[in-house]
# Entry
Amino acid sequence: MPSSTSGTYSAGSIVTFNVTCTKYTPPPPPPPPPPPPGGSNSISVSVTNDTLGASWLVSWHDAWGGSINPGQESGSGDYSWSVSAPSGDRVYFQASITSNPSGYTCTISPTSTSANPGGSVTFTVSCTSNGGSQPPPSNTVYGCYFTLSVGSSPSGAPSPSASPYGSGTYFIQSGDSLFTTLTASSSQSISQDEWWQFLYWSNSFSGQGKLYINGKPWYYYSKYYGSTEYVDYDCPSGLTQNVTATFTATAEYSEDYVKLKGYTSVSLNIYKTSASVPYQLSWNLDPYSASQADWSLSWSQGATQYMVSVTLYTANGGQYPAGFTTYLQCSVSGYQLSVSSVTFSNGQDTLSQSVSGTSGSTTATVDITYVCSSYIAK
# Structure
């Protein structure tokens, strides 16, 4: 039916218009787009800190038992992905290390956790050195092959400790650092009168990167006289190829001693009435220097034995005692010994000597007055 018309009509004529109505129904709206990965219907999952390339496995299942299919992801190195799940569902994850890099033992944390859609889960890998070599994390990551060599000299000297990294070759990513602490024993006994004495660390570095000892460039401490040194190696940033570096730290020792040589027993000539018995004190006290030797005698009137003692002093205040007992007898059986005096060559029971040198020796003489008398057994 036209909405308007035109024409000529006579007065008194009738014109009729018909109106028709139709109900309007709007079209249905378009369906909403699917949620993007990582959106409210997914869970973000990532494995981080796997710089050594440990192999890991992450598996998951949901709480409803069938809303999603169980799944798993495996790999090595850092990696991220998403797991889709219906809104309101809860997804449970388990993680484990399936293979360790050579020379290392790795763990992943947490080993189990859960999350709802819209949440995230992060697994962190941590590795501990077994003293072996460390492979590069991947072919696309450049860095430094850093060789650390820790030892002692001369042969037989105590081995230093290193924590957490000891001798070995390690891969350090470009821009990263390695820290370790080296400790040498200050002294270690060999025998009653011998010991290993720590002198200094002998340090050398070559290759790419920077190495610091106790916070300073290593060449400040090519010789470091403290028993503990803190080592920091920095691999250069922005590398486009792998490079190498080597650091050698050797704990230098001296085999020190203070020894008293003499006689534990003396046979006295029956035809004489006096005798002189020499004693020698020798030492090696690197890095210290001896300054004085104080001798003393312990003898009781009439006794047929005496004790010689000596204390060696160093310029830095060190004291090193030594001594032993000497027994006297007549050289021929059937003779009875009578001792009337035991003194040093100065006629006293003490003797003080000025000495010097890191190593050296000095002697003291004990004079004995005696009589060996024959007797007839009854």
